[in-house]
Amino acid sequence: MTDHGMAVVIGGYGAVGRVVATTLARDSAYEVVVAGRDLARAEALARSGPGRLTPRRLDLDDPRGLDGLLADAAVVVMCVERRNEAVARACLDRGVPVVDISASADVLAGIERLDATAKRTGTAAVLSVGLAPGLTNVLARRCTERLPSATSVDVTILLGTAGDHGPDSVRWTVAGLTAPPDRARRPGRARVDLPGFGVRTAYPFPFSDQYTLTRTLGVPVTTRLCFDSRAVTAALFGLRAAGAFRLADRLGGARLLTGASSRLRLGGDRFVMHASATDGSGRQVWSAVTGRREGHATGVVAAEIAIRLMGRRYPPGVHHIDQIVDAGEFLRTIQRHDLTVHEQPVAVADRADDGPDPGHVQRM
């Protein structure tokens, strides 16, 4: 990688991409290319955004357009779920680092298969970059570092029903609600004390974190979801338990479900990312991040990783975020983006015989 060039943000005018693009333009010395099929939207962002934002039309079905962008690229940030493995392969073949914010396990697995290519060209790709996966991975790593004897990890996500969700995020959430239950894992719901919201019931949800973190941390990981509105949480997971979402999906109603979810505005825009680690003696530690606007938070996490890649901080290969960042340092850094980190004092974590502390997870 050279010391000059452009930061290319594919899908750079979307809900997350525009945050990545404007953060990179403000916080790095690189020219930032806002790339996507809709040139008018890219141009509008370039006119209103800070720093050096350059609009470029890019159709991912046309390899020649991508080749032209990669010629001068210092990093590529992929903010859409479309031809992700092909884009990552093109970047790594040319020695261009890549960040992919995808949350789908199959997309991540496809890019993981490019590890040998990345090492051959001396280039890094970073996955699980955003909220979940992303900050949840970092929080889980932080917990296992604080409790090396951990035998299990629980990850809980609380989402705001009126947040700045992009269409990909909404489609992905609906897909999780319509997915068949994981008969092999059979995790139960849990009561979790979440900073700013109190004790909430969270339900098992197929975030990709539970698969990648189980592998990278070496302990079983369970991921759960709830929403800021108790009524929405109870209704959605009650319908899921009754099989209503799977039936609607079989009848072709997934698109209607996605549209309805996009218009749902019963709560606010606050979120919580929470992780806890428990060991065989019952000791538990927890860490959490709270903030507003999930799309904004996803974008700044991706931008921070892109800046580090341009600074050559990570070794060649395909990595998930928890495998390469210093968890404590990264959590300190993101607080400058209006995110708040919460952890119980070490003294509380060391008391195995006391009652539950704030942040405690009680599995049900």
UniProtKB/TrEMBL annotation:
Residues 8-124 form the Saccharopine dehydrogenase NADP binding domain. Gene3D superfamilies: NAD(P)-binding Rossmann-like Domain. It comes from the Bacteria. This is Saccharopine dehydrogenase. It comes from Verrucosispora sioxanthis. The lineage of its organism: Bacteria, Bacillati, Actinomycetota, Actinomycetes, Micromonosporales.
